[in-house]
Each structure stands twice: as C-alpha cells, then as structure tokens.
Amino acid sequence: MAIQKGDFIKLNYTGKFEDGRIFDTTDEELAKKEDIFNPRGLYGGDVVIVGAGHTIEGLDEDLEGKEVGYNGSIVIPPEKAFGLSNPKLVETISITKLKDRNVHPGLPVEVDGRRGVVSRVIGRRVTVDFNSPLAGKTVTYEYTIENVLETEVEKIQGLLALYTGLRDMEVEAIDGVAKIYTPTGLTFNQRWLMAKDRVASELFKYAGLKEVQFIEKLTAESETQIPAEPEAETEAEPESESKPETEESSEPEV
Q1: Collapsing DSSP states into helix, strand and coil, what is residue 125?
Q2: Do 131 and 86 touch, CB atoms closer than 8 A?
Q3: Which of 36, 37, 63, 154 has its CA 20 to 30 A from that of 209?
Q4: EC number(s) of the enzyme (predicted)?
Q5: Within-domain flag for 23
Q6: Considering just the CA atoms, what is the radius of gyration of the chain in Å?
Q7: What CA–CA distances, in Å, run from 99 to 109, 120, 123, 219?
Q8: What pLDDT does residue 206 have?
C-alpha cells in the first residue's frame, strides 16, 4: 500500500551537499566515518509522521505515494530544504558584545542567545551571520522507507524517540487512552518540556487517541539516563519546533 499523509514510518536516510559531503545520516558507522557522529544522536532510523513537518519539506513531499522498502534519492532546492539565506540575519556588531575578543572569520559565536558565525572583522566591528549553516544550500537525500508502524504502542514509542532521544519508553494504549511512563529526569529536561504538548497533539491528530497521560515513574532498581540538553542544532529544523533536527539526527530537527 502506498505511503499516505499521516502514516507513521521508519525512515533511514543520508543527506549530502552538492559536492558530495555528508552532513546528516541515520547510519551510525557512516556518521563516525564522516566525522559527524553525535554521541547523543539516535541512529538506526527515525520514526516520522508523513506530512507532519518532521523532516524538510522536499523530502516530506517525496515520501507520499512510495511503497515500504522504497530506496531512492531526491535533490532538494534551498526553498524546500533549509531555507534561503536571509540578509537580515547578517548583522554587524561591536566586538565588545563577544565573550572572546580574539575573533576571526569562521569563528562560531553566541550573541544574546543566538548562535552565528563570524564572516568579517574590520577593526572593532564584527559581521556575524545568524543564518543556519545549511541555509541557501541545495541538498540530496538518499533514503529508504523501512516500514509503516501499525500499532498504537509502536507509534507512540516512535514519536517519543523522535522528540526525546529515548527508545522504547514504557507505554500502554487501551481504548484510545495512552499512558506514557516518563523517567523522572525528563521532568526537568527543557527539550521535553517544550515538546510534551506537541507530542500529545500529534497523537490526537495522527494516531486517533482521545487521551494522553504522562505519568512520572521512579524505580528503586535502576536509574534511567536522560540525554543532556541538546546543543543548538547545526541544521535548521524544518517546519518543526523540535526536527526531528529529524534532531539530533537529524533536529528530519530530518
């Protein structure tokens, strides 16, 4: 059966620039080989909802109509990838606003909570590009649709993995009511606090659930290791307030 909007699918992919350099992949060994491995990343494939903005627009659109097992590639222009470069996000500021005064072109910096890259230094004035490093770039995605998730528990666990980086969280789903047992460490995890309402909303819309209960669970036998707060994504999260970066996979923040 052809993939449709709203389907929960498991997707493996590799993203490349036009020169062939790989910037994102769900293949752990390839990530290590290309020196882009993220120890906090979740490898082995992402679960995404087709049409929900969990990956970039061009890839999301290409998924529709494909069959499980499909393997192919697509070239995606900037406007359907990570967006065009916005000249308004290139700003010239005083060097006194930077913690490190020993600046040079190419240096990553943070100004008023925003991350950017120094593009020019003239005297005590510094030009900083706050665009995503992927903005304005044409990219190619090679991808495989592994399978479509059918059960409510699979869908819930897959969505939770996308937003938290934790696989196989304890979940129950009966008569349209989901009980999600969250490790106590998630209570103070900023990424989770921002994503929790969205997870519930997407489960209502795409999984047909009527109620979602988040239950904090503590056990004496073991402690669950909660991922550290993620650093700012090096790639833009397409249409998502969390990808996904697709995380950190790819924030589909893929």
Answers
A1: strand
A2: yes
A3: 63
A4: 5.2.1.8
A5: yes
A6: 20
A7: 8, 17, 16, 43
A8: 97
